[in-house]
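From: lab user (bench 3)
To: helpdesk
Subject: output format question, protein + flavin mononucleotide

Hello, I'm new to running complex predictions and I'm not sure whether the block I got back is the full result or only part of it. Here's what I submitted:
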Amino acid sequence: MAKRESIEKQSWKPGNVLSPAPPVLVSCGGTQGWKPNLITIAWAGNVCSDPPMLSISVRPERYSFEIIRTTREFVVNVPSLKQARAVDWCGMVSGRSEDKFAGAGLTPASALKVRPPIVLECPLNIECRVKESLELGSHTMFVAEVVAVQVSSDLVDGKGRLRLEKCGLLAFAHGEYFVLGRRIGRFGFSVRKRSR
Ligand SMILES: Cc1cc2nc3c(=O)[nH]c(=O)nc-3n(C[C@H](O)[C@H](O)[C@H](O)COP(=O)(O)O)c2cc1C
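Helpdesk reply: Thanks, we reran it on our side. This is the complete output you should expect:
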């Protein structure tokens, strides 16, 4: 183990430094009088395997906040490099004044189980129903159950495996976007016997 003195550390003030985060396009609306809208979210993550659940954290001042709070449904659309510009743009403008699907050149398509549309171009669409909301401070966390998943067929290989690495997944870290690169191992590689 490296000695404490051999690696120099600085003390920083507490903040949201956990990185990378997945920048996702969350679609909402399309029901109860709300037009379909998109919001870029970086504070998102898996929170439970069974039942499958994830969370997104949204500031109450966002237009999307009221939509999700009242309709209790949304879709997490995982973008690829091809949607990088749309991801940034949907996080810069509000649905109060823009039709973001049209403005970003994205196609709304039917979800399987929820009323908001999926983003057709995104390789992975995760349909969610809100179970709980937690007012944490600046953000409210919506904890939601995953009720359906759609994947783009061209990313599924002959063995039925999803090859998301083929599409250029995005990562968001400290205000900057990155595209995921080299695969360095499979789950459990550290304990698996090396093949000759
Ligand atoms: C990369 C990126 C990540 C973002 N992450 C979040 C987030 O996790 N929560 C949030 O409330 N806003 C986040 N935003 C800001 C919203 O996407 C932005 O305010 C958007 O314009 C809100 O749209 P709306 O008013 O149509 O809901 C993010 C923006 C960007 C560019």
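A quick orientation on your result: Residues 20-155+163-179 form a domain with the Pnp Oxidase; Chain A fold (CATH 2.30.110.10). Let us know if anything else is unclear.
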